[in-house]
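INPUT
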Amino acid sequence: MSDDNGYEAPGTHWRPGLRESYTFDRNAIAEIRRAAAQGIYDIRGFGAKRKLPNFDDLLFLGASMSRYPLEGYRERCDTSVTLGTRFAKKPIELKIPITIAGMSFGALSGQAKEALGRGATMAGTSTTTGDGGMTEEERGHSEILVYQLLPSRYGMNPDDLRRADAIEVVVGQGAKPGGGGMLLGQKITDRVAEMRNLPKGIDQRSACRHPDWTGPDDLEIKIQELREITDWEKPIYIKIGASRPYYDTQLAVKAGADVIVLDGMQGGTAATQDVFIEHVGLPTLACIRQAVEALQELGMHREVQLIVSGGIRTGADVAKALALGADAVSIGVAAMIALGDNDPAYAAEYEKIGSAAGYYDDWHEGKDPAGISTQDPELSKRLDPELGGRRLNNYLRTMTLETQTLARAAGKSHVHNLEPEDLVALTIEAAAMARVPLAGTDWIPGHSRADF
Amino acid sequence: MCGIVGLFAKTPEVEANLGAMLAPMLHEMGDRGPDSAGVAFYRDAVPAGHTKLTLQHDDPDFDWSALRKGLKEAYGADKGVGRRGNHAVVVAHTDANAAQGWVEEHHPDVKIMSAGEAIEIYKETGRPEAFIETFDITSLYGTHALGHTRMATESKVTTAGSHPFSTGLDLCIVHNGSLSNHASLRRMLQREGIRFQTLNDTEVAAGYMMWRLREGATLNETLEGCLEDLDGFYTFLIGTRDGFAVLRDPIACKPAVLAETDEWVAMASEYRSIATLPGAEKARTWEPAPATIYSWEKEKV
Amino acid sequence: MTTATDIEVIDLAVTSRRELNQRLHDAAKQGGPTYWRILNPKGAHALAVGIDGAFDIEIEGHTGYYTAGMNKLAHIRINGNAGVGVGENIMSGSIHITGNASQACAATGCGGLVVVDGDASSRCGISMKGVEIVVKGDVGHMSAFMAQSGVLVVCGDAGDSLGDSIYETHIYVRGTVEGLGADCVEKELKDFHRQELGRLLEAAGADAKVDEFKRYGSARRLYTFNIDNAGEY
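OUTPUT
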């Protein structure tokens, strides 16, 4: 394939004598050419795509002479989670330790939001609104709905606050810790424009800081206000893009959070600058132990629940996150893929819009053939919310069964009894980040936070 | 993140009751600063050529009398040791360099909280209620006082990491906010010979001020320098020998309230601290503008 | 005629804020007194928040943060100064502050009327989404930052970066403007605007004339990203 000037990327026609540069590889060259042509940074959806240490670099230690497994099915392996035990009058009970992360109506089609609600409800878990507010479809179809409070406050209103099951204060997200929301004009339809109180068809600019508080000391007062408005019923989550997880976790506790959500850099977004996605944040693997240690030091582990997100794909990822100390995980990109994002059935259409099935991340353009990251009525019609809901439920059930399989093999009757000692690492980086030994050794590469 | 309070007396009655008036102000700031509390009081000025030191030691049974005796033998010292909590005030009959040098040499495990003619700094980890009781804050009097409650952001919760930080003789700072370039500034200041005990960003601001003053800048020039050289969000309350100054960064997201009556001038992060003061209802209240220095001094009032 | 017995008086020196808000919420759902007086606020936060009913509420004294946050339908008067974020996200009804308002006054407000007799601090009307604000004194810097719709009237002066990154909000200022924010420009006062301004000045009881004001609004150059405007971002 060649670009508009007939330039063919390296690697397409290798023969002896041709050598691709490691530094100026095909992606680097393509990006430089694109920037030279367009004069603007590249905007796209999805999370960090580059190679990063992740849960694949960890392995579970199964049962052997000293540890005994549990029988599948007959011997209980509990997966339930309660969120919001610290202050809320009505904590949330989930059947599985996997939730659906915040994704906006606007970024996603109405059908996609409905499908997520249906699937999550079937599986006994929650969905989350996004940077645009709550839709009737999602509230109607999602039995447990978490309502986000973002810097933009698009669609924010007290009635939705009162009919939410939990409130999530968004400080940031893994794809762009420190960045605001972004929705380009092609996705600002009449309905989206009305919900967000914007002119139709313009490019939405979003603030990166909250308008009426800055800092955990003032966030503490804001959370008090939210509790007062909702008569202390709802759990309050604080969502943070992984940056300084140890300090961020302690500050979130001091600000009064019931639940902390940490989103690593593999976490997706509907639209932001590629440079932001790839070069800011921490791999999800690197933030969990620091957050858990921060909670343990404050005596708040399991009292303030920790949800981890950013590149969760399988039950293995779920189990490993729990073993490192998380109470639950959250999925975004994975949920979209379960619904049908990047479906090979649309291969020809992806080619037509300059992409390919499995590579498509131009979610900001709103041309998604699968009808998920689009507002186009013809395209979004293609997503059947009932079928999508069933697919999501299948996927969630599969991940839960996988988690239980691993937990049982490690002798656990509740997935929360998984612990770091059940894991080993395959690489030095993973061992250091997860603070588990390198496989076959006693060695955990040391860490030193300054003693000041 | 944190809470700040400050009180400047305009009458002898307020001077006599300064601690009793500052304590409730500090108490109100406990929610936004649960980790540590601290105050700086300006009182009982010693004559020129003498130095008042506030010292601290973790051991509650530390022998302060012996320390004072040693100081007395070396340079002469006032009778008695003013003890509050695990802090002690001693007055040496010599200049500050000699006095501090002596303590550092003979008692390296003792921390020097402040040095000067009038200033006394008390600070400790824990909530303000406990701090106020342990240090008997309500019994303190003085011409003016600053207080702080801390929510640690990127450094440990320790006594040394608490505010106020002393920037030099009779000088101190309390801070609400978060600096973003303090690591680089610390390295530069260390090269200039300033020493740091913590990784706390406020200690860097204190060190920066000490450096500028040492190099001959006036207090005003130093505060202007803060606006130029310190990056991040901050409300500073700076204590001086004769008064205090308030400074907010140009973006001014962190809160600050000022209030004044015929009896006092007060500063706080939230109005509810000021509301505890007698006469607060009738006070003139206003918010300091960003990037603007506000100051009060005894002579001017 | 309202007699003393028609007014529900709540003294925060004896009643908790939690009880105050719960009673107001319950009254909205189940019926209750129309007139309320709240004493001794002493800078307390989150007073009279999330109200959902056409009450008349007077607060006697200075309040803390987020007073009357997310208000619907109620008419709330603060006889004193209001703290950060007074009337944040107001949906409808009105808020009248007889003293000064701290920063982020009426932040992200979607409807209703907010009147400040004194000055409002920085970020007045930040991200406003339909609320109408009248400040009889001055407003601080970054006021009407990312303001989307609604109206901001300033009878005094405006601080720097007024209307930075503004969308469709109308801004009227009688005094000086220290500086305009990105994409905010002076615009002509047409008949529609004169009517709108006049209506609000009257509603606020402001002693000012329409002719004394200038109008400011969006130049709409940032509505679609263009590399040549990169300096504004």
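end of record. Chain C touches chain B through 19 residues (CB under 8 Å).
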